[in-house]
Amino acid sequence: MASGKLAFIGAGQMATALAGGMVRSKQADARQIWASDPDPKARERFESAIPGANAVAETAQAVIDAETVVLAVKPQYAGEALADAAPAIDALTLVVSIAAGVKIGSIAAALPDGARVVRVMPNTPCLIGQGASAYCLGPHATSEDGRRVAKILGAVGMAIELPERLLDAVTGLSGSGPAYVYTVIEALTDGGVLVGLPRDAALRLAAHTVAGAAAMVIETGQHPAQLRDVVTSPGGTTIAGLAELERGGLRSTLIDTVAAATDRSQELGR
Ligand SMILES: NC(=O)C1=CN([C@@H]2O[C@H](COP(=O)(O)OP(=O)(O)OC[C@H]3O[C@@H](n4cnc5c(N)ncnc54)[C@H](OP(=O)(O)O)[C@@H]3O)[C@@H](O)[C@H]2O)C=CC1
Ligand SMILES: O=C(O)[C@@H]1CCC=N1
Question: Is residue 205 part of a domain?
Fold first, then answer.
């Protein structure tokens, strides 16, 4: 990946997040990055977010001679995007799909026999090197392809390899997860405003509280319940807040949220 053309089909949010993260982490040279997108505004945004990168209307132009092709269109457009790319794909091309729900089998079926396919589910914090991704190798992808993908994803956050049957669950948890957490941060901020904090102070306190708590889980390796107990003084403020949180059903709502998003990912793959 340090050398070689990298082509994104679709120059939207996720292509921009991944390409931007890779350039920032020096995993890719911006001039080697190409993207195709029918939307001129998306092309403009991609090129201005990643100075030196090339965004074009035609997929054939973006993918020709690419070492790695990343399918980064909405799942509904995957078929047509792959049809445009297929003539330029051969055994030398590594095809990485980030499309939610779209199975390796259906990607491979749209490409020449023997295509090397890796399915990935990243998330938007890849843009700032804090992504959480999972990936799965297709039948013709090599262990070197696996190392390459792990290196790319590792440069923009953490990544784990999982069997393909679990990638819809990953989509429901970490792929979509940033949106849940933004909602939590926004709601905490509103709570702060309700009790008298200026909005900007409340937002900063809420976001850093979420970031700090997540870092505690990651860095201490302690169970979240143990860490919560340390915050929760007998007869204190936290237990008063937690009692209300349980009455509101946050825990079961979040469980149902992940399950609903996983179901939707499965539907997109049918
Ligand atoms: N957003 C996220 O947090 C995550 C998204 N994903 C997956 O990444 C993929 C991209 O999502 P996201 O970046 O959010 O979507 P976006 O809509 O931001 O980007 C997709 C882009 O692809 C363009 N496009 C449509 N058809 C084609 C085509 N045939 N050839 C080339 N470009 C095309 C779209 O143009 P137009 O708008 O005109 O249709 C759009 O600009 C999806 O499959 C999604 O499931 C995975 C993980 C996280
Ligand atoms: O909402 C979606 O479908 C995509 C997939 C994961 C995050 N965003």
Answer: yes
103 and 22 together in one domain: yes
Q: Which of 69, 73, 103, 130 to mutate to test the pocket of ligand 1 (most atoms within 8 A of CB)?
A: 73
Q: What is the pLDDT of residue 169?
A: 98
If asked whether residues 10 and 116 sit together in one domain, one would say: yes
Give distance in angstroms: CA of 13 to centre of ligand 1.
Answer: 7
Alpha-carbon gap, residue 15 to 66, rounded angstroms: 15
Q: Could you identify the residue written with the tokens 């390409």?
A: 19
Q: Give pLDDT < 70 ranges for the chain.
A: 1-3
Residue 103 lies in a domain: yes
Residues 128 and 52 in one domain: yes
Rg (CA), the chain: 21
ipTM for this prediction = 0.98
Q: Report the distance separating Cα 96 and Cα 115, nearest Å.
A: 11
The residue range of the domain holding 201 is 176-269
H-state helical runs in 92-176: 104-109, 143-155, 167-170
CATH number at residue 130: 3.40.50.720
Tell me what pLDDT residue 3 has.
46
Q: Quick check: pTM over 0.90?
A: yes
